What we know:
mainly beta, Tachylectin-2, Chain A, 4-stranded antiparallel sheet, 1 helix, Glyco_hydro_43
Amino acid sequence: MTTLSEINFRDPFILASAQTQLYYLFGTAGQTAWSGTPEGFDVYTSPDLVEWSGPFPAFRPEPGFWADHHFWAPEVHAYKDKYYMFASFKSEGIPRGTQILVADEPQGLYHPNSSGPVTPAGWECLDGTLYVDQEGQPWMVFCREWLEVTDGEMYAVRLNEELSAAAGEPVLLFRASEAPWSVGGTEGQYVTDGPFLHPGQGGELLMLWSSGGASGYAMGLARSASGSICGPWTQDAEPLYAKDGGHGMLFRDFAGRLLLTIHTPNRNPEERPVLLEVQESSRQLNIGEL
């Protein structure tokens, strides 16, 4: 058994499975986040969010897999009768992109569901996440990297019912510099990282996303008052989490509490997943201690 303080994961994502009564923790392995050749992705399991078993293999690339480094930000969503992993990969000479993997069980093993990245060919992209709208249409929200466009961009694209390919053209939602709290780099670079969608109270659609802030890596909140994934999107003036942490997601535990997981600090190899309780009001998410 281990605790979150011993797990060197960036970009943590927790799937709560009512079927198995277990929580599944996925993330970017800190040891190979920036260098080295990753083995794939691992998963930890827990009945109580305190003691965790693992790591267990969740994805292992088969010979000939197109990517060889920067295996980043795996997140798993239950959709219809299967489990889908959205994860970002890169290879020398091939732009980073998000590919969709599939498994019959939440722990895996996961195998490619799309033939390659679902993000547009030739774009530098990462951090795809699943959103299913009120009509049941699946979308992927993803980031186009500042490395390519300087002012990082957030997009949404329709997916087909099999989650194996895009079913339309990407829609630009916003640019990182539109958030008052986002701070650019020395040459005007603005980062977009880690989108996660949450239906808010009163019909708003909320998006957690991360960028550079006044005190380092930070996470803010964007809002679509219409409830539509296509917006228009507005940005809260202040970050939701302001200092040296981010790439967050929300889930409900088996007692019904709304919880947030992020990684902090944002220094490799010190980053660890943390859990925070969230109180939701009509227009606010208030973060407290767990």
